[in-house]
């Protein structure tokens, strides 16, 4: 419709716009019509195209801003999770070190207990052996005394030529042995 108006205005050969045309080639009327049509086109574009286009651009800008915010939140959350993982790893290392230290201490304690038990067993065995040796020594001394008494009685009876009672002889010999033992 506007295009038809432009054609009609320029086809009118003698009107106001024709009078503005310069014979040297500058068509001032065409320039004015073009500017008017350009202004009308701009108004129509602003009303029908620019508003929706700006709405789409605003939506796009808002979407991009939301995506940037979501990416920043994701980055912060991943950084937080990384720090939590590092803390958990550090705690696990400390726990493992604590377990190893406790096991080492427990091993040392058990080793000391085993050494103490072995020493006490050795001491008990030494005491038992000492007691057994003392008992066997006393038995051996008693056996030697018996043998000595028997030999002494036999020797005394041969020397004296007469027999004395075995009990008197035994008492005499034991008395002699005790006196000899005290002399040592």
TrEMBL record:
<dbReference type="Pfam" id="PF00430">
    <property type="entry name" value="ATP-synt_B"/>
</dbReference>
<protein>
    <recommendedName>
        <fullName>ATP synthase subunit b</fullName>
    </recommendedName>
</protein>
<comment type="similarity">
    <text>Belongs to the ATPase B chain family.</text>
</comment>
<feature type="transmembrane region" description="Helical">
    <location>
        <begin position="26"/>
        <end position="45"/>
    </location>
</feature>
<dbReference type="GO" id="GO:0012505">
    <property type="term" value="C:endomembrane system"/>
</dbReference>
<keyword id="KW-0175">Coiled coil</keyword>
<dbReference type="GO" id="GO:0046961">
    <property type="term" value="F:proton-transporting ATPase activity, rotational mechanism"/>
</dbReference>
<keyword id="KW-1133">Transmembrane helix</keyword>
<feature type="coiled-coil region">
    <location>
        <begin position="79"/>
        <end position="113"/>
    </location>
</feature>
<comment type="function">
    <text>F(1)F(0) ATP synthase produces ATP from ADP in the presence of a proton or sodium gradient. F-type ATPases consist of two structural domains, F(1) containing the extramembraneous catalytic core and F(0) containing the membrane proton channel, linked together by a central stalk and a peripheral stalk. During catalysis, ATP synthesis in the catalytic domain of F(1) is coupled via a rotary mechanism of the central stalk subunits to proton translocation.</text>
</comment>
<comment type="function">
    <text>Component of the F(0) channel, it forms part of the peripheral stalk, linking F(1) to F(0).</text>
</comment>
<keyword id="KW-1003">Cell membrane</keyword>
<keyword id="KW-0375">Hydrogen ion transport</keyword>
<dbReference type="GO" id="GO:0045259">
    <property type="term" value="C:proton-transporting ATP synthase complex"/>
</dbReference>
<keyword id="KW-0138">CF(0)</keyword>
<keyword id="KW-0066">ATP synthesis</keyword>
<keyword id="KW-0813">Transport</keyword>
<dbReference type="InterPro" id="IPR002146">
    <property type="entry name" value="ATP_synth_b/b'su_bac/chlpt"/>
</dbReference>
<keyword id="KW-0812">Transmembrane</keyword>
<dbReference type="InterPro" id="IPR028987">
    <property type="entry name" value="ATP_synth_B-like_membr_sf"/>
</dbReference>
<dbReference type="InterPro" id="IPR050059">
    <property type="entry name" value="ATP_synthase_B_chain"/>
</dbReference>
<dbReference type="GO" id="GO:0046933">
    <property type="term" value="F:proton-transporting ATP synthase activity, rotational mechanism"/>
</dbReference>
<comment type="subunit">
    <text>F-type ATPases have 2 components, F(1) - the catalytic core - and F(0) - the membrane proton channel. F(1) has five subunits: alpha(3), beta(3), gamma(1), delta(1), epsilon(1). F(0) has three main subunits: a(1), b(2) and c(10-14). The alpha and beta chains form an alternating ring which encloses part of the gamma chain. F(1) is attached to F(0) by a central stalk formed by the gamma and epsilon chains, while a peripheral stalk is formed by the delta and b chains.</text>
</comment>
<keyword id="KW-0472">Membrane</keyword>
<dbReference type="InterPro" id="IPR005864">
    <property type="entry name" value="ATP_synth_F0_bsu_bac"/>
</dbReference>
<dbReference type="GO" id="GO:0005886">
    <property type="term" value="C:plasma membrane"/>
</dbReference>
<keyword id="KW-0406">Ion transport</keyword>
